[in-house]
Structure prediction request, 125 residues.
Amino acid sequence: MMLLNIFYSMIMNKCSRCHQGDVFVSKNPYNLFRMFEVHKTCSHCNLKYEKEPSFFYGAMYVSYAISSGWFMIWYALESTLLNWETLNFALFVTGFIIVVSPLTLRWSRLIWLNFFYKYKPEYKN
Prediction:
């Protein structure tokens, strides 16, 4: 059940504690001018998102894990189904990682929030 709460918060850009308020200012992760903007607090339960200065630096570790996961998935597909040349594979994966990096950044921050603030149904109302 906890994984479902994390996935919901991650996919829908919602507060990890109440699942009501948005975390990021822009709903579009590809709005590059507002990609890093996070609300100070949740509009519904008043959860302070950044509990200390530089709180989201820890999300870099989560981002690294997600990016590694993308690479492992593509490597498994390449070695079993695609059989591309090494240079073509490297260029494709590099381009793919660049294209999905706004999503990876957003998801890593939302997962990081879920490590510290668990979903509590009593905050929903």
